[in-house]
Amino acid sequence: MPNLRIAALCLLLAPGVKGTSVAIMVTRDTILIASDGIETQTANGRDRFEPYCKIRNQGRVFYTAAGYHEIPEIHFNLWTLASDAVRESKSVRGICDRIERSVLARMPSIVERGKVADPNGYARWLSGIPVILIAFASFENGAPRVTAVSFPIDHRGAIMKPVRKTLGGPKVVLDDGFFGYDSRMEEATDRRKEDSWRPRFKKNPVGFIRGLIQLEIDAAEQEKRNDVGPPILIVKITRNGGVWVPGHKGACR
Questions:
Q1: How many angstroms separate the CA atoms of 166 and 182, rounded?
Q2: Superfamily (CATH) of domain 3-244
Q3: Band of the pLDDT at 11, cuts 50, 70, 90?
Q4: Side-chain half-sphere of 168: how many Cα atoms within 13 Å?
Q5: What residue spans define the domains of the chain?
Q6: Which of 86, 97, 111, 177 is the most exposed place for a label (fewest CB within 10 A)?
Q7: Rounded to whole angstroms, how far apart are CA atoms 159 and 156?
Q8: What is the pTM of this model?
């Protein structure tokens, strides 16, 4: 089974800092997407949690992202670009083609701003952490499909070609992908220990993926990081469309 393991750490944004933990699990009949549900607003050296929607949709296509979401100074809004890409495309592949063009056109400004405003984040980009990662999920021709597009720079700061990773397909049994703060989730789904955790996922998929995000929330609290926190957002997507799991909608509309 292919894996999608992508790290994208918290980045300085105006007016605050956003951290993200996202888990995606795909079976033949279902796509589950879960994330934490807060944004950290920083003002006068103090952090404050605010509810924030990290899973969005345009019709039957759902999408989630890590990295830079919004930069008002350069009129950049990843959610708007994603919504436009979905609305103007007929397939996940077409969506990704459009989002690549839209984000790449803005990458020079994004990278330059990050270099000045967030030297630590810029250093992470130089080490291989994507500047932006966005994943789109839907059923196509009866099969689940999730495609993530990441936008990296190289060790010299040059903008690289976007990288795509795909989960699902007509023959999928169980695929998973994690990004943002994801080390605890990776440990909990270690392929070498699959016999121990896969029955728990099969018995209660929603409870299992909720528990993965909770691991990252607990880790953030233990490490005194004001970036990942409750509520936990969960969407369940089937051939009939996507629905919010009751009690897990957070600030999403």
A1: 18
A2: Aminohydrolase, N-terminal nucleophile (Ntn) domain (3.60.20.10)
A3: very low
A4: 26
A5: 3-244
A6: 97
A7: 9
A8: 0.89
- DSSP states along the chain: --EEE-----EE-SSSEE--EEEEEE-SS-EEEEEE-EEEEEETTEEEEEE---EEEETTEEEEEEE--EEGGGTEEHHHHHHHHHHT-SSHHHHHHHHHHHHHHHHHHHHHHHHHH-HHHHHHHHTT--SEEEEEEEEETTEEEEEEEEE-B-TTSPBPPPEEEEEE-TT-S-EEEEEES-HHHHHHT-GGGHHHHHHHHHH-HHHHHHHHHHHHHHHHHHTT-SS--SPEEEEEEETTEEEEPTT--TT--
Q: Which tens digit of pLDDT belongs to each residue from 215-224?
A: 999 999 999 8
